[in-house]
Amino acid sequence: MSLDLTRRDLILADHLIDGRWCGAAAGARFAVTDPADGSLVSEVPDASAEDARAAVDAAQRALPAWRAKPARERAQVLKRWHAAILAHQEDLGRLISREQGKPLAEGRGEIAYAASYVEWFAEQAVRANGEVIPAPVGGRRLLALREPVGVVAVITPWNFPAAMIARKIAPALAAGCTVVGKPAEDTPLTSLALARLAQEAGVPDGVLNLVTASRAQAAAVVDVWLADARVRKISFTGSTPVGKHLARASADTLKRLSLELGGNAPFLVFDDADLDAAVQGLMASKFRNGGQTCVCPNRIYVQDGVHDAFVDKLAGRVAALKVGPASAADSQIGPMINARAVDKIARHVEDAVAQGARVVTGGRRLEALGPNYYAPTVLAGATPRMQLSCEETFGPVAPVFRFRDEAEVLALANDTPFGLAAYFYTRDIARAHRVASALESGIVGVNEGAISTDVAPFGGVKESGYGREGSVHGLDDYLQIKYVCEGGLG
């Protein structure tokens, strides 16, 4: 795909620190490549600890003025940023598709999704209300004030480079916090473009700071933020092992954490389900972004009575998916992010087949298209012993497990350390309430596969993390409560 954008200046190759676009202090850079063909897209700075400290210095200097700015003024800045994002939806969508690989239609859709968080938190900025508490004795007034936590570090993944950073930065700025951030090494360009638009919308110097770092340098950057007591909160989306490291390493300064970590989402189809609706819901939730989402169904459980019919319907839809680069207008599944991702997918499928699973469709690399492509796949006869049952595949593979009754499938669905998302289809209203309550998950879709929205709380339980993004609860994660007791009023 060509990167002939309407605004070429949105292709940025520098850090943003204290309002200045600059290279790394040590001068190092690393390559950003197109996963469709490995071609060079750009080179960006490879940050060091010095860059990370400079970003915190800028954020700390900018904090007093930004937190003191009236909430309505912060909201107006965010509204201008929202308008700018939508005005440049095509350019930003092309950037996403080029550096991340998703089809252009999905890239455009992600920009609209990212913008929705900016708009939502612009509206919430003026609603960070405190409380007046009835005093237990006369002559006093008790207040509970909600104040910004301070400097926030945000660390985002590669699969949704616009949406993930927008739904962290927008509530932070709305609350009156300042931000230091590190986008994923595979997909930094979209985040940098969003930061340029934020600048143009009126975000003051130092309020938003972004540094880019290679995989080799990421720890050096984040370790500075973990150790710095001025950074009062970290918001991270990524793997559970990294989330656990952040939790341990932030203990010395008792930072607040929002962790949206790994998933292993079950998708349950009961005998009484509308099968066409269930297949459509699975297609929407499983194959978006090529299966590279944290809320993708990873284990599809189908009850005996409809199992074969469901597999046939699903296989027909999956076999018809068009695979190709974002530059092809009819592409529905793009490349995986890198070779490591394809190797993991292939390993999971090979392990499943070796243990008795049957490939209904797909099940192979698409090397004629390039090294990072894998065919959308449906496997029948999956069992809990297989690697794909306990590890998140993060690719376009739908393994189907057979189950007998509700008690059995709930035990299987909950038999995981993760609890981010879960889905099920049934037309029995009593079962709908019962199963939704029984599933150990932070997000549940009932007869619905597309569940993400800015107005609802997004986050998990168990080893899928804690904290919520989006909704009114998403602002709370960037605010702290101050109790004020006013005496001598009688």
From TrEMBL:
UniProt keyword list: Oxidoreductase
Biological process terms in GO annotation: gamma-aminobutyric acid catabolic process
GO molecular function: succinate-semialdehyde dehydrogenase (NAD+) activity
Enzyme's top EC category: oxidoreductase
EC numbers: 1.2.1.16
Domain of life, per lineage: Bacteria
A Pfam family the protein falls into: Aldedh
Keyword Oxidoreductase on entry: yes
Residue ranges constituting the Aldehyde dehydrogenase domain according to the UniProt record: 25-484
Record-linked InterPro entries: Ald_DH/histidinol_DH (IPR016161), Ald_DH_C (IPR016163), Ald_DH_CS_CYS (IPR016160), Ald_DH_CS_GLU (IPR029510), Ald_DH_N (IPR016162), Aldehyde_DH_dom (IPR015590), Aldehyde_DH_Superfamily (IPR050740), Succ_semiAld_DH (IPR010102)
Active-site residues (renumbered): E260
NCBIfam families in the cross-refs: SSADH (TIGR01780)
Family membership noted in the UniProt record: Belongs to the aldehyde dehydrogenase family.
Full protein name: Succinate-semialdehyde dehydrogenase [NADP+]
